[in-house]
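Lay summary. Proteins are chains of building blocks that fold into shapes, and those shapes determine what they do. In this project we predict the shape from the chain. Here is one chain we studied, written as its sequence of building blocks.
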Amino acid sequence: MASPVPSRRPLPAAPGPAAPRRGRPRIQEAADDIVASVLATAGPRVGTRDFSTRRIALLTGLSQSVVSRSVTRIRSSSWSAGSAGEGRTMQLAEFRIEFPRIVIIFDDAASSPPAEPQSSARRAAALMAALRVSGARDWPSEAAPPAEDESLPAGVLRLVWEPWAQPWEDFLGQVSAALDACVPGVDAIPGDLLGQLAARVGRGLLGVRWRRRDAPPQGRAWREIEESFESNTLTVPEFPAPGRARGGPRWLPQAGLSITEQIAISLRKEVMNTGFRPGDRLSPAGLAARMGLTMPTVRAAMRRMVDDGLLAYADGHFAVPAVTGQDVIDLYASRLHVGSVLLRGCAAQPRHRLLAPRLALRSLEAAAAEGTSADVDQADLHFQQELADASGLTQSARTFHALTLRVRMFISVLQLDYSPAVERILADDRRILAALLEGAPDDAVARWRAKLDNAVRHMTALSPTSFDRDLWGRLTAWR
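And here is the predicted shape, written in a compact code that computers can read:
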């Protein structure tokens, strides 16, 4: 499906080169640039009250009315030059900036989850602001590279900007119109995309490659990866507890999740997408509406999560749990010892029992080559759980699974970025599996210990308290 050709409105005539600029500076235009910079670098928390027009006014020293006009101008349809997405309910599916081309893909959303309208509007404004301050408008247009393959499934809207093909304002208008058609919720413009844009906006957004996990792959590289697997585990972020019946291949981890586990997945996604911080309240009513469940069911599951340390509860409200350095050390020391037992159990099993971990490692390799750091993180935890299941030690595997649920919540709360560690994670997992296949459990355990030593230091560095080397040493010392 080719990009729609919008109806173009004539642009206002620019003053001639000899026309002098007189009078006061253009206050609103300068304010637009300032506010755009604030929104573009806000990340997933842009939808919270920290980035209301009043807070931005206090931050920048501008008046609230000027800030409000700037947000409207950044986001509004004053740039709109077409009807992209008209009559449809959509969500972002892919966002790529590969000089000298910008590609943004929308697809049809399955539902319209409830959300605060102001929050959704600020998320859309943040995306538009990132484009505004990216500098792409000034890209040179001397030569056109080969056109991309534009064959897309039905219902997919593909917006492309190339400097030689259309005016920048027309492209922004198409994006603005498509955002108008997006569902009002955090899923339409996910927080992981806003986080990428915030991190790279200072570099002109060059290198941003984001793709919705549940979206059908569009590029050739993704299709080749999928064809080399019996299932695309890159898009599967969770797995059931050990021993639960699975419908389908052994390495498909999505089947059979309990209500509590499904709610835990939704909560972690919401924490990541909205940029919630420890202590922020979570609404059972909103979660029940989004998942189509009753309030008693959701509240019961959230109380179970409180018992498991996945949520906090105080003064009658559920909240994002606090994560201290001691919590991280406690959790990883437990995972170190239980994991060591499981690895020794794996080494005692026939080699064919390691088929599922081998497939999970291939998924991790694909994630490292083509996915995001979040894909690598999820694939790594999946690989670890497959090793636990292959050990034949059901009770230890269940304990390890419960610890993994806490790790996932900690990762969400601390907003961890594993990009710098991708190569090390992959190398560690390859060595662990190789040692098990060679019948060398001591080598596998030693590599596991080194892997968790790096992980606990990385996670503790982002917690409110510093890393306690002595505590970690006492809890993990070998006899």
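What the prediction tells us: The CA atoms of residues 60 and 135 lie 22 Å apart.
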